[in-house]
Task: inverse folding
């Protein structure tokens, strides 16, 4: 029969009077609406925070990092890496040397820090240092026989340093040689040229020196700790990684921006989909109301169902009537909830209605709407509503027309 949809709407939305069944129906629609809207807003906020954290990390992390799989440093193969540098996806090729060292300044104590030796011109194009320099200038070249050093603002405040101060660095390998060979440890003098501040989430403060000065400090000669690559599009990192790994072989480890901070990104994804599952409980509660309201409709319309069957409606058609009722509830609730969720997300993204603490790196909750999330939310809500109609539809199809008419 082709009029099952019409019958489903008449059973679901009775115009004669407001009954318990219609009340439960409206409660079900409200539950689906609220659940769907909340899911869209909350997942959009999680996406917004993910983008904020990703932006902060990518201001410090490369899109691709190449390291040796066997040693702490390696000598780049000129021809091979020159070829990689010419790939259209690669916009920047920047080798670096890094390690831990002990920093000393007058009598203000010692501190173990992370030192990164860079090629200033290349690194300057990787990070917007113009916006990050808080004092002095970003300069690492040798002046008056002293190489320059840039220090993090937190470290500058802790040691009370100023541009022009002279500090000494002692590497871990230098300390080891001093202990094993019973010699005076060799320190390297650096001239503080300035300080910078980049919001860091996982690593401690770093100091930057020229790559040649870092090689002397750590005794790596012509070696590098790794090579950072900047891509035209960070989202191409996985594709470029596979291509690089097949070209370089097992002697090298290729990591994407996601791999470099994988535990943090994984936790954020886990929180996002954990919130999705928890908030779907609201929709599940609404679904239980659907089961109740449709079951009551089956009981109330028992005689009508018996008449429909005697008129030639098949069990499949009877099931379809009640399944369409679940579908209608799902469509109405998902449509209203989806529109409300999209509106709230747009308002938050555009006007920042809900503010954050002034101590946080942004002033309002970020919101980033993604089509896939909306599809998953609406599809999940709709699927649950249709599934809720299965049991009442099954019970309706099992009604015997003779008994239904006789006892009504």
Result:
């Amino acid at each position: 029969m082709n009029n099952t949809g019409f019958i489903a709407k008449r059973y679901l939305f009775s115009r004669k009077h407001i009954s318990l069944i219609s009340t439960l129906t409206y409660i079900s629609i409200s539950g689906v609406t609220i659940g769907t809207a909340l899911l869209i807003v909350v997942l959009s906020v999680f996406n917004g925070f993910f983008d904020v954290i990703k932006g902060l990390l990518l201001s410090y992390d490369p899109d691709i990092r190449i390291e040796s799989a066997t040693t702490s440093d390696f000598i780049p193969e000129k021809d091979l890496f020159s070829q990689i540098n010419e790939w259209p996806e690669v916009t920047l090729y920047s080798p670096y040397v890094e390690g831990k060292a002990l920093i000393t300044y007058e009598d203000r104590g010692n501190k173990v820090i992370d030192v990164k030796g860079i090629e200033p011109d290349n690194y300057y194009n990787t990070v917007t240092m113009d916006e990050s320099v808080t004092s002095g200038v970003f300069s690492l070249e040798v002046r008056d026989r002293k190489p320059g050093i840039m220090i993090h603002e937190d470290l500058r405040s802790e040691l009370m340093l100023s541009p022009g101060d002279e500090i000494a660095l002692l590497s871990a390998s230098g300390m080891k040689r001093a202990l094993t060979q019973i010699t005076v440890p060799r320190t390297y003098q650096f001239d503080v040229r300035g300080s910078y501040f980049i919001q860091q989430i996982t690593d401690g403060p770093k100091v930057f020196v020229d790559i040649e000065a870092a090689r002397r400090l750590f005794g790596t000669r012509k070696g590098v700790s790794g090579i950072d690559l900047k891509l035209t599009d960070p989202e191409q990192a996985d594709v470029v990684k596979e291509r690089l790994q097949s070209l370089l072989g097992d002697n090298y480890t290729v990591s994407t921006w996601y791999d470099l901070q994988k535990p943090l990104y994984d936790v954020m994804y886990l929180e996002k989909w954990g919130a999705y599952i928890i908030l779907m409980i609201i929709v599940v509660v609404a679904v239980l109301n659907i089961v109740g309201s449709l079951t009551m409709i089956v009981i109330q319309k028992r005689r009508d169902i018996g008449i429909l069957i005697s008129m030639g409606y098949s069990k499949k058609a009877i099931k379809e009537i009640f399944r369409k009722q679940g579908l209608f509830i799902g469509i109405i609730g998902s449509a209203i909830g989806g529109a409300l969720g999209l509106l709230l997300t747009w308002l938050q993204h555009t006007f920042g209605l809900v503010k954050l603490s002034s101590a946080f790196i942004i002033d309002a909750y970020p919101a980033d709407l993604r089509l896939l999330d909306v599809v998953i939310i609406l599809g999940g809500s709709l699927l649950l509503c249709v599934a809720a109609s299965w049991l009442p539809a099954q019970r309706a199809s099992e009604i015997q027309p003779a008994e239904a008419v006789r006892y009504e």
Summary: The mean pLDDT is 87.
